[in-house]
Design goal:
The protein has 126 residues and is an alpha/beta fold. The protein is built from five helices and six strands; from the N terminus they run E-H-E-H-E-H-E-H-E-E-H. It has one domain (4-121): Rossmann fold, CATH 3.40.50. The N and C termini lie far apart (32 Å). The mean pLDDT is 93.
């Protein structure tokens, strides 16, 4: 099974479009396609988990806390946080590389920072 992505409502839409142009086989659902406009984080996490998609977000403010709470009771395909100031090309290349070179189970219940892909929870232990 290949990785599938879910864009959070705050994610720069240019990232979703660029990934689709560069790798048409990659399944990257927009927030609008999933009807996630202005939906609270816990519901976004629930929808991502229900559909088996790694959530891609710019939300460093509230998503980490909601993610930790979510995975305390549920399984998650994972969340990748993308800094707003990260060049789009780097975000796109990283997402395509992850899709091409890894399996979905490698990201389960992990909150990771793009482009480093280090689990934030692992950073906390260092």
């Amino acid at each position: 099974m290949k990785i599938r992505y879910q864009a959070d409502n705050d994610l720069n839409k240019a990232i979703v479009r660029a990934v689709a142009r560069r790798e048409p086989a990659l399944d990257f659902r927009s927030a609008q396609a999933a009807k996630l406009d202005h939906v609270p984080d816990p519901e976004v996490l629930w929808e991502s988990a229900r559909s088996g998609r790694i959530l891609i977000s710019h939300d460093f403010q509230t998503m980490p806390e909601h993610f930790q709470e979510f995975v305390s009771n549920h399984e998650s395909p994972g969340v990748f946080l993308v800094p707003q100031d990260l060049p789009i090309a780097i975000a796109v290349e990283t997402l395509i590389l992850v899709w091409a070179a890894t399996d979905p189970d490698e990201w389960e219940n992990r909150l990771c920072l793009i482009p480093s892909l280090v689990s934030i929870s692992e950073v906390d232990r260092v």
